[in-house]
DNA sequence: TGGACGATGACATTTCGATGACACGGACGG
DNA sequence: CCGTCCGTGTCATCGAAATGTCATCGTCCA
């Protein structure tokens, strides 16, 4: 899951991405509406975190504008203006959630995860595939009850695959959703991550490679 | 199925063809309208993906021009100009579909496949010929319910034949639609692929050779 | 009966995924 | 502040699968 954070406050520019990354999200940062527009132009995000007030304007106006054109990516606004009127504005103008400063980064993380999930295959806090259980809230994965120590990237990739069981997912799709803008689409990062995942899962063929297409988890009915 | 991608952005020049190829499409690349015109003159394509803005002009003007001459190949425009007015323009001037940047390459692939299919046998998700079923979305082929492991080329050739049941398809036509520009029309790649297909289909005469003409699938009513 | 054409199988080449070794950088603890 | 560990990305290499090439054989028809 990939998130764009649009924030001009220097403290939050550090804290917010850090918190989201530790939740296995890929995070890009933009410091203005113009920069955000550019990033949204180039990449596919699963969620956007907008500060209300940015150097080049009020982000609500921007989001409203995009919504009118059918843009559907979930948005969470951060704001210090905590009046009820503003809160209403946030929702009316295309915001999906709202967080009033000061806020706990943990809370932000939880809300962003929820928004990402909402956009995807219907909010499931615990994902299952055969005897693999992913607790997306705690960021824990168990295989047959045994806790596997997955890293953030491994978690992100497995989550993406597991929410798309039975579908083949291309490398570029994985890069697009599990890595941030710094990722090189030509490298074999995905391969490397898949390999580490397979090792930790202790069953290499749980994740199947589809030659020329990508990877997939096959819905195994009986087994 | 063969697709022409017209794109001047270097990142997309890599990513888009890669994604389409992984969907078993043969892809050629042009970097300008002039190059595209040349390619369209020389080869037959099942679909064209046009970037809106190219170094030598707006591709919409070009497509409109070609449409006026009766040109009917499906076109998908990629654009960053996401105003409603532009969207309308895209359709009015001969575009069959429209994708606003940023887009997920998976989405692009899905739309292109859909356009290719629409142009052919009118959007059939599952193609059938006798007891052969092709799931074009999933890229799977079954014979009497049994999954056959077809490779990308085999799939492409069978798909082309099956959507033209009862018609004889020449080798050059197959080369043109299932291979990219690098293919040598004099070689017997087609023969080799047909042979492998026959083997996997387990019935050699399912694909019939027409001496001096090419190959065809015959609509067998009783059998 | 000879020649053109398709079928076939062996083999060469290319492509792609798997793998392990290593490099880099940030986090953390001493 | 330094050293170590861990997560992550990169690279070279290997091997298997896919694809392309070639020589040969069979067959159909003039």
Question: How would you sum up this structure, described in words?
Answer:
The structure is a homodimer of 223-residue chains. With 223 residues, chain A is α/β, with parallel strands linked by helices. Helices cover 39% and strands 22% of the residues of chain A. Chain A contains 8 helices and 13 strands. In chain A, strands 2-1-3-6-7 form a 5-stranded parallel sheet, with helices on both faces. Chain A has a 4-stranded antiparallel sheet with strand order 8-9-10-11, covered by helices on one side. The longest helix of chain A is centred in the middle third of the chain and has 15 residues, at 105-119. The first copy, chain A, starts with a strand and ends in a 7-residue tail after the last strand. Chain A binds chain B through residues 40-45, 68-69, 168-170, 172-173, 176, 185-186, 211-214, and chain B through 11, 14-15, 18-19, 21-24, 80, 82-84, 87, 100-106, 109, 138-139, 151-152. Chain A binds a DNA duplex (30 and 30 nucleotides) through residues 151-154, 183-184, 187-189, 191-196, 198, 204, 209, 211-212.
């Amino acid at each position: 899951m990939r998130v764009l954070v649009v924030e001009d406050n220097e403290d939050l520019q550090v804290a917010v991405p850090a918190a989201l990354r530790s939740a296995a999200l890929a995070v890009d940062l933009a410091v203005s509406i113009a920069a955000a527009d550019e990033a949204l132009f180039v990449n596919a995000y699963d969620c956007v975190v907008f500060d209300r007030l940015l150097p080049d304007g009020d982000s609500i106006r921007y989001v409203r504008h995009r919504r009118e054109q059918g843009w559907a990516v979930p948005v969470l606004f951060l704001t210090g203006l905590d009046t009820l009127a503003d809160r209403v504005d946030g929702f009316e103008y295309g915001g999906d959630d709202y967080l009033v400063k000061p806020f706990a980064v943990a809370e932000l993380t939880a809300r962003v995860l929820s928004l990402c999930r909402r956009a995807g295959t219907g909010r499931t806090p615990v994902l299952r595939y055969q005897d693999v259980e992913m607790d997306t809230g705690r960021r824990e994965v168990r295989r047959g009850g045994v806790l596997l120590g997955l890293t953030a990237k491994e978690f992100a990739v497995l989550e993406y695959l597991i929410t798309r069981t039975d579908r083949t997912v291309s490398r570029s799709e994985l890069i697009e959703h599990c890595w941030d803008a710094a990722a090189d689409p030509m490298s074999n990062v995905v391969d490397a991550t898949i390999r580490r995942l397979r090792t930790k899962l202790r069953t290499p063929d749980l994740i199947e490679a589809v030659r020329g297409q990508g990877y997939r988890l096959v819905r195994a009915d009986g087994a």
